[in-house]
Amino acid sequence: MRWNNVRRFRLRRIVDGIGCLLSGRPSKKPLHENALHIVPWRSGASAPCKPQPIRTGLSPRGRIQPPARALLICVPLLLAAILLLAAAPDKHLSVYSTAANYSLPVVQRDRRDYVGLLEVLEPLGKVSAKFDGQRWRLRYNNRVEGDFFVGKTRVRVQGHDAELPARFLLENGRGLVPVSSLASLLPRFLGGPVTVHEDSDRLFIGSIATHFTASLAGDNPPKLVFHFTTPVNPSVSTEPGALRMTFSREPLVAPALPTLTFGSKVIPSATYAETNGGAAITVSSPVPLIASFSADGRTVTISPTSPATAQTVVAPPTPPAPAGIAVAAGPSPISHRYFAVIDASHGGDDRGETLTSTLFEKDVTVALARSLRQELESRGITVLDLRDSDATLSLDQRAYLTNTNRVAVYIALHATASGHGVRIYTALMPYGGDDRGPFHSWTTSQQAFLTLSQSAAADIANEFQKRQIPVRALTAPLRPLNNVTTAALAVEVAPQGSDLMQLTAPDYQQLVTSAVATAIAADRDRLGAPR
Amino acid sequence: MIPRHLFIGVAVLLVAVLGMSIYAWHMRGRVAAIPAQPAADTRALVPTFSGPTERATLFVAFDEDGSLRPRSAQIPLPSGRQQRAEELLSALLTIYLDKTSPHALAPGADVRSVFLVDPGVAVIDLNSAFADGHRSGVLVEDLTITSLIHTLSANIPGVLRVKILVDGKERETLAGHADLTGFYDVTAVNQLSTQLQPVQ
């Protein structure tokens, strides 16, 4: 009992001392008097101090006692610290372009993500902004001018009106636009395709995306080999049952399906995911894995490791740069001329054909475009993919981007529930056209290339026939085929049978796209010949 | 013992309920007496001209094999070119709106009018039900356009180009694919019609 009293006394003194320190109140007794003198308990000895009453925190007059006061101060401080630590990380937008990769802070206004437009454009060219009353004028490369009106959704770029999905904001001279507007707004300034992954705050300017394929090699032990279209430098981490590669500054985009399965017990699957400005590939495995990089940084091999090295993380060739710092991009995939343009038709509000209640044509065409891109690139054909997300692109924009990039062939992709097999279309030219000297009518721009287009369509149809896939070659009044100034064709894919879900099956998509890619590769010399 | 004020309150409420029931019964009888409004007529327009019939060739789309097949028909045709054009397309739509249609169109689909403008221009004005309810797809829209234009050009000589409007206005596409912004070249459409002939 006495020893308990000693401990209670000691605790009360400590708490009292903290209370004194926090409240600034001077101690009622000199420190030496407050000092605790512990007297070892011996049987029969008197108690070292009197038993103290248990404190309630309130004095008999209702005043808060020092220990309670200390608690009142400490608990809110502790809660505030917990809240600060648990707060969501700041959102940022990762921008990938041939000029630079950089990230920008994203702010929330009106429950929407906003970003500074000037900051987005600054690393890409010469930008200046001027505020004039209610109008914020942005000039890019002394060439493109845009007028933004504070609190309005209407903008005017190069004399053409456009609508933002939410109002334009001006804060401390900083023009803020919704992140969701960048896909339609930036092409007007930059003159090229822009893709926004809104969910993960990633912005791709031009055809900058890095694609990858994954395949299993070897049996004992199996190895998972990732091939990337550009050198990559991910950070690698392991956790029980998985190895994760995080790509913080590479413009990595999803494969046709987010989860890849390999039919192996050792490495059963890999999953692609995007979060807050980055991408990650997680390879699941019941055994510890190790990652090794090829010298050129384009190949990553994942293989089982011994238990001793199970937790070893193989460092990539160079440490990844910290996020938020602009870095020069590596070798640019668009530093040379594209051979082909792939156009996943529809997108955004234009859903195309409603194939099932949950499946739209616009989604199937994106998957087909990704598959075709891989097939063409694996045959050494450079590709500009016009739409790799749910972006809205007008038909004129699609034709304009194709024509300005001077590609050898334009391939539009469509999907349908009606009929069976594949249809290859070339343009059904509209009546007339008003060519004047060197200027060609926009509606009949394809006229001079129609023979080349029909020849390419026939070659692709032959390739399908070789593979015993039902195919027809037709003409169709399908824009923008008639606006394109190169070989232009559209591929409409229907299921072979009555099962519509075949349209989403990767093996069927690959069957179709590999036939198209094989025919294009065989026609490379003719299509790429100077005209 | 029920308090007096409660008794009066319940009595007033009962009277009100009775009164409202009688009023509702009375209104129901009045509504029943009003003649019913005819529902929107979604039947296909049948040829309205009832004069002498002529043999005409209609180019009918078949979704089954994605083909366009000529079909002879005895149609009462007036002498005026414009009326003839309208009667021809009405006859074609009658086939498409039938239960056994080989290329189903949306209920209520109709050709509002056909204008023949010299030299060689035909303007087909479809109603919004035609375009809004049309199935989406490159081939299915291709078949509809080709069927309309080839049927018109095969029976009305001198038509060189065709413009398609919807409710009197220009529309970008029929149902997401077939372009309606330009003039169709009848020669090119007839070549497409040949491509769409069934494989023998």
List keywords for this structure.
heterodimer; A: 531 residues; alpha+beta; Immunoglobulin-like; 4 domains; six-stranded mixed β-sheet; globular; B: 200 residues; 2 domains; two-stranded antiparallel ribbon; 5 helices; 6 strands
Distance between the termini of chain B: 98 Å
Find the CATH superfamily of the largest domain in chain A: Zn-dependent exopeptidases
Quaternary structure classification = heterodimer
Number of β-strand runs of chain A? 29
Number of domains of chain A: 4
**What would you say the CATH architecture of the largest domain in chain A is?**
3-Layer(aba) Sandwich
> What is the beta-strand fraction of chain B?
15-25%
Radius of gyration of chain A equals 33 Å
Query: Hey, which two chains have the biggest interface?
Result: A-B, 29 and 29 residues
Q: Major sheet of chain A: size, sense and barrel closure?
A: 6 strands, mixed
Number of helices of chain A: 10
The largest sheet of chain B has its strands arranged as 3-4-5-6
Domains of chain B (count): 2
**How many distinct helices of chain B?**
5
Morphology call of chain B: elongated
Mean pLDDT of chain B: 87
Q: Please provide the ordered H/E string of secondary-structure elements of chain B.
A: HEEHEEHHEEH
Helix content bin of chain A: 10-25%
Strand count of chain B: 6
